[in-house]
From TrEMBL, chain A:
PANTHER family registered for this protein in UniProt: DOLICHYL GLYCOSYLTRANSFERASE, DOLICHYL PYROPHOSPHATE GLC1MAN9GLCNAC2 ALPHA-1,3-GLUCOSYLTRANSFERASE-RELATED
Protein name listed in UniProt: Alpha-1,3-glucosyltransferase
Enzymatic reactions: an alpha-D-Glc-(1->3)-alpha-D-Man-(1->2)-alpha-D-Man-(1->2)-alpha-D-Man-(1->3)-[alpha-D-Man-(1->2)-alpha-D-Man-(1->3)-[alpha-D-Man-(1->2)-alpha-D-Man-(1->6)]-alpha-D-Man-(1->6)]-beta-D-Man-(1->4)-beta-D-GlcNAc-(1->4)-alpha-D-GlcNAc-diphospho-di-trans,poly-cis-dolichol + a di-trans,poly-cis-dolichyl beta-D-glucosyl phosphate = an alpha-D-Glc-(1->3)-alpha-D-Glc-(1->3)-alpha-D-Man-(1->2)-alpha-D-Man-(1->2)-alpha-D-Man-(1->3)-[alpha-D-Man-(1->2)-alpha-D-Man-(1->3)-[alpha-D-Man-(1->2)-alpha-D-Man-(1->6)]-alpha-D-Man-(1->6)]-beta-D-Man-(1->4)-beta-D-GlcNAc-(1->4)-alpha-D-GlcNAc-diphospho-di-trans,poly-cis-dolichol + a di-trans,poly-cis-dolichyl phosphate + H(+)
GO terms for biological process, alphabetical: protein N-linked glycosylation
GO molecular function: dolichyl pyrophosphate Glc1Man9GlcNAc2 alpha-1,3-glucosyltransferase activity
Keywords for this protein: Endoplasmic reticulum, Glycosyltransferase, Membrane, Transferase, Transmembrane, Transmembrane helix
Membrane topology: Multi-pass membrane protein
InterPro entries noted in UniProt: Glyco_trans_ALG6/ALG8
Chain ranges passing through the membrane: 160-182, 210-231, 311-330, 337-354, 404-422, 481-500, 506-528
Family: Belongs to the ALG6/ALG8 glucosyltransferase family.
Pathway(s): Protein modification; protein glycosylation
Gene, per the UniProt record: ALG8
Automatic annotation (TrEMBL), chain B:
Gene label: ALG6
Membrane topology per record: Multi-pass membrane protein
Protein name: Alpha-1,3-glucosyltransferase
Keyword Zinc appears in the UniProt entry: no
GO molecular-function terms, A-Z: dolichyl pyrophosphate Man9GlcNAc2 alpha-1,3-glucosyltransferase activity
Family: Belongs to the ALG6/ALG8 glucosyltransferase family.
Length: 549, 537
């Protein structure tokens, strides 16, 4: 609630973006919303968000009329800053409300409380919303509302909420496949305790439900896109919403597969141009790539040695990465699997998508948090023994150490991957401070909630009370990775500027951050996929045995 | 900034704050809960139902105690840094600028001029230093440097002193309680707003004072007086505390018999003279220098009070124009006498019964007396009474947080002028949220309602100012005057309350517990305190 402190930070480009949108939606008719291009920051969110901005702009015009003039670029009076910042804080009440509901539905135990606080005071959200300026807290609030509905079995409402969410920000398309599969399978088919056998599929199918669901979703989209269909602006809208011409990677690389790919390419360029190995391996360097990619400019990405990647390629890779989890979900549409598969879909899109923003990691970590909160943990007061499991609900899965490890690594890597957004020195203590504080508290808290196996990683109950390391639950490799952030970020934040000066080799720290974080994200993804698939296999096994008998 | 701050890490919703229903969470002390038990504050059964206490409990339950100090530094540091994003005193307002420019100029002065000349120019008003080309120098980097310097000095002197204080004050109490007290003291909004928003180095002086108190708590009186003299020579404001320190040390000495008393007084006297002598050595060579320094440090010529300050003179000024009636010399004498009269009762009580608890109350009383009645008081000086009151926050769970809120309120006109309204709102809101739970069920509902009414009233006043800045054109300073009068009234009431608390309540409680001697070992003291609490509970 009291995140105002951050709101004093400098405003970024996104601040001007949203101010411009306030102006567009306030002073122009609907027909001009997606055509207007006085500012380079054109409206590129779906219509519901535009309406949201219009709602805000009414209040904005009261506070400072200059704020809502389209040609008043880079306007940032004190009143405007306070107004815009406070809208973010107020809109995050939606998140607060959603989290309160989640606490009520998932169970009010230490693990759930911890996840709640970890979500509400998430350094990623704090950085992106309150420092950088976006309305993610509000949007993730809607997402969590939808998930809580799904958990409660109100699938129709959940689906409608998600459709609404899609029309607020189309980044949620990343997880739409999981929603689609889940709603189709869980809502449009009659589900008994066991999964349905193939021959009864037709009898289990409920066409009325499909029609209801379909109609409601279509209605939501009609409400949102209808006016633009009527005005024949859909192609224009699509070019605004899906700027495929923007290139494979964002201005600096998000910590995903393409960051690793580009990094390998850069290495190969070095090898090819500086060493005889280039000739030996018959590498040819595309000269146009030498000056392009890593300079921090928005533009088309060119590779020097490796083959170029097109939008179709990324789409194929993304779908390929998503499919296994969707299959698992389709076989048995439980809520557990639903959130797991949502996480993996978000992962797949983040890792392999076209022009992914570094901020998209929030989608992964938020959904993953919900997935963790859905599980049963041990109570911190119950002692270290394995017998003290607070299993209250037989249907829920226990929190596994793999989940926790993946969560910690991915979150840390993802949030550190956001750091380059805040490049002034005054912001550095804040971004480092909130991330470190969050990590220590959440890692320490989760450590107590994770049931310990007898041969678990580093488990030794004889360690004196009050002297546990928060890294204890990680493997040695993971511990090294986490500790490795210290020297790496020390170099990026301080040493580099000191050695090379402010401007020379400016791409190097960005590249180091991206690649190091990408390694963590990919590792966490593998770990989480493994845990998800394994639990899926185990759950499906007894049934298949029954079948064979 | 989230803040990002410790308050909300407590593992429960803020809504559950006022109804302490989650006792199971607090009732089960974790495996690391050391000491005799978490009991015996003066409120109820020793459990504090505030978010910070839950946070501390959570930390202990999760065995994260080894990280706790770093988290405290991190979180309180972050809050301060966020406040520091705001403008500082005199930001971009030539020609006078403000405290930031004053401090910056002092740095420049002390760097470039020989020591003896430091006080020869005008240290107070930078206007006279027109030959300095760098006057009003402002840049982002300079601001960063200045902010960092405040942060570092505060960390080294003040934070460390508070850590030690919580250990010594709540000795043998549960760690949770100590940690809660630590966080509360460090998140006191007044000091944060003035040091990191307005820009001053008060924390150093206050930290040195707390170090002195720490030493007194451990019966290291000589070391304590060294620290106190250092505080005095860092900022002369520490003089506000001197009657209490003097009374405490004198009272303690008097209990040692003739020889012991003389020996102790000689020890203390030599310490004080030596410390101050060393600090002021460069200027002790000529009479002119001494006078010059004295005149600088006590700028009597600047009038009875500055701007609108929430003390009695300014409040009286609404009705009686004292400054027109009397000349400045009379006023100086008069206010000095009044101050003397105000702190004497508390000082005499300390001489008669020099207890450690009494010392803290005495610090509050004497500094409040100075604030209310002495000559040339700044609104920022309320930080001095606020420090001992904050230290007493677990012992005075209702009154102390309220006092701090009022102190911040009294500084609001200053902060508003400097564009610090936003940090003010955030920090005071945070403070009220953090401390609201200190009003437990044992507090009578009248007091609770009074607190609510007072807070709502003051908030309403600020809202009114925001909505209608100048309702009556004849009185442009209406709100500032109202603020000063109300706050002065409040502070006077506090003065009465704390005096009653120190002079009547403390001894009477002790009389019940039938112990006579007051000075002595810490353990004995502790024993007495616990008896006091069992009686009062």
């Amino acid at each position: 609630m009291k995140k105002k402190g951050d709101s004093k930070a400098f405003h970024s480009t996104d601040f001007e973006v949203h101010r411009n949108w306030l102006a567009i939606t306030h002073s122009l008719p609907i027909s001009k919303w997606y055509i207007e291009d006085t500012s380079e920051w054109t409206l590129d969110y779906p219509p519901f968000f535009a309406w949201f901005e219009k709602l805000l702009s009414f209040f904005g015009a009261m506070v400072d009329p200059a704020m809502v003039q389209v040609d008043n670029l880079e306007h940032a009076s004190t009143a405007t800053v306070y107004f815009q910042r406070s809208t973010v804080i107020v809109s995050e009440l939606v998140l607060f409300w959603a989290l309160q509901r989640m606490l009520a539905v998932m169970g009010n135990r230490p693990l759930q409380k911890l996840i709640n606080w970890s979500l509400f005071l998430n350094p990623g959200l704090l950085m992106v919303d309150n420092m950088h300026f976006q309305y993610n807290g509000f949007l993730y609030g809607i997402l969590i509302h939808s998930l809580v509905d799904a958990k409660q079995g109100k699938l129709l409402r959940s689906g409608i909420l998600f459709a609404v969410l899609l029309n607020f920000k189309h980044i949620f398309l990343y997880i739409a496949p999981s929603y689609f599969v889940f709603l189709l399978r869980a809502y449009c088919f009659e589900n008994s305790e066991n999964s349905i056998r193939a021959r009864s599929w037709i009898s289990a199918f409920r066409p009325t439900r499909l029609i209801i669901l379909g109609l409601s979703v279509v209605a939501v989209f009609a409400l949102s896109l209808g006016p633009f269909v009527a005005m024949h602006q859909i192609p224009q809208l699509v070019t605004r919403l899906f700027p495929f011409k923007r290139g494979l990677t964002h201005s600096y690389w998000a910590a995903n597969l393409w960051a690793l790919y580009s990094f390998v390419d850069r290495l190969l360029i070095l090898v090819a141009s500086k060493t005889p190995l280039g000739k030996l391996w018959n590498l040819s360097v595309d000269p146009s790539a030498l000056s392009a990619t890593t300079r921090g400019l928005v533009g088309d990405t060119a590779f020097g040695v490796l083959p170029a990647v097109t939008a179709q390629h990324t789409l194929m890779v993304t779908v390929a990465l998503m499919l296994p989890s969707l299959v698992v979900l389709f076989r048995r549409p439980t809520f557990d699997r639903f959130v797991g598969s949502l996480t993996l879909s978000a992962f797949a899109s983040f890792l392999a998508g076209w022009h992914v923003h570094e901020k998209a990691i929030l989608l992964v970590t938020v959904v993953m948090s919900v997935a963790l909160a859905n599980k049963v943990g041990t109570s911190p007061n119950a002692g270290a023994g394995a017998g003290a499991l607070a299993r209250e609900n037989g249907q829920q899965q226990m929190l596994s150490q793999r989940d926790v490890r993946a969560f910690l690594i991915v979150s840390l890597a993802g949030y550190v991957g956001l750091w380059p957004l805040f490049f002034t020195r005054a912001e550095t203590p804040i971004k480092v401070g909130i991330t470190v504080a969050w990590f220590v508290l959440v890692a320490g808290g989760l450590e107590q909630c994770t049931p310990r196996q007898a041969n678990g990683v580093g488990a030794s109950p004889s360690i004196a009370a009050g002297s546990r390391s928060v890294l204890r639950q990680l493997t040695v490799l993971e511990q090294m990775y986490v500790v490795g952030f210290v020297p790496v970020q020390a170099y990026v934040l301080a040493v580099h500027g000191w050695v090379f000066g402010e401007d020379r080799m400016a791409f190097l720290p960005l590249m180091i951050t991206s690649v190091y974080c990408a390694a963590g994200v990919v590792y966490g993804w593998l770990l989480y996929s493994y845990a998800f698939m394994e639990s899926g296999m185990q759950a499906d096994k007894p049934k298949s045995k029954k079948k064979t008998r | 900034m989230d803040k990002p701050s410790a308050q909300a890490r407590a593992p429960s919703s803020p809504l559950a704050l006022l109804t302490p229903k989650e006792t199971p969470l607090l009732a089960g002390p974790g495996s690391g809960s050391g000491g005799i038990g978490s009991g015996s504050g003066s409120n109820s059964n020793g459990k504090i139902h505030i978010p910070l206490a839950r946070y501390a409990t959570w930390i202990e339950d999760n065995q994260l105690k080894r990280y706790a100090p770093w988290l405290v530094i991190l979180v309180t540091g972050l809050v301060r840094w966020c406040v520091g994003f705001g403008p500082y005193s005199g930001y971009a307002t030539p020609p006078r600028f403000g405290d930031y420019e004053a401090q910056r100029h002092w740095m420049e002065l002390t760097l470039h001029r020989p020591v003896r000349e430091w006080y020869c120019g005008n240290l107070i008003n930078p206007e006279w230093y027109a030959w300095k080309t760098s006057r009003g120098y402002e840049s982002a980097e300079a601001k960063e440097f200045m902010r960092i310097s405040v942060l570092v000095f505060e960390l080294v002197v003040y934070t460390s002193s508070v850590v030690v204080f919580t250990r010594r004050w709540l000795v043998n109490k549960a760690w949770i309680r100590q940690h809660t007290l630590l966080l509360l003291i460090l998140l006191q909004p007044g000091l944060i707003l003035i040091d990191h928003g307005h820009f001053q180095y008060n924390a150093v002086m206050l930290g040195l004072t707390v170090w002195a108190v720490n030493c007194f708590l451990a019966d290291q009186d000589v070391l304590g007086s060294v620290f106190f003299c250092l505080a005095l020579s860092f900022k002369q404001m520490a003089l506000y505390y001197s009657p209490a320190v003097f009374g405490y040390l004198l009272g303690k000495s008097l209990r040692l018999g003739v020889i012991g008393c003389l020996w102790k007084l000689i020890k203390l006297g030599v310490t004080v003279v030596a410390t101050l002598g060393i600090m002021f050595a460069p200027w002790l060579q000529s009479k002119d220098d001494i006078l010059q320094v004295a005149q600088r440090i006590f700028p009597v010529f600047r009038g009875l009070y500055e701007d609108k300050v929430a003390n009695i003179w300014c409040a009286l000024n609404v009705a009686i124009k004292l400054r027109d009636l009397f000349d400045i010399q009379t006023l100086v004498r008069f206010s000095t006498l009044a101050t003397l009269a105000a702190f004497l009762p508390s000082c005499i009580a300390l001489i008669a019964r020099p207890t450690k608890r009494g010392l803290i109350y005495g610090l509050a009383n004497s500094s409040l007396s100075f604030f209310l009645l002495s000559f040339q008081v700044h609104e920022k000086s309320i930080l001095l009474p606020a420090l001992p009151v904050t230290l007493l926050i677990v012992d005075e769970p209702v009154v102390a947080p309220w006092f701090v809120s009022l102190a911040c309120f009294s500084m609001y006109p200053l902060l508003y002028r400097e564009g610090l309204a936003m940090p003010y709102l955030a920090m005071v809101g945070l403070w009220i949220w953090l401390t609201a739970g200190l009003c437990t069920r044992r507090v009578s509902s009248t007091v609770k309602w009074l607190a609510v009414v007072a807070h709502v009233g003051l908030a309403g006043l600020q809202l009114a100012e925001w909505v209608a800045p100048t309702p009556l054109p004849r009185y442009p300073d209406l709100y500032a005057v109202l603020n000063a009068v109300l706050s002065a009234g409040g502070f006077t009431a506090y003065w009465v309350y704390f005096n009653w608390r120190q002079i009547i309540w403390l001894p009477s409680a002790r009389a019940l517990s039938s112990s006579t001697t007051s000075s002595g070992s810490r353990r004995q003291m502790l024993h007495q305190q616990q008896q006091v609490k069992t009686k009062t509970a």
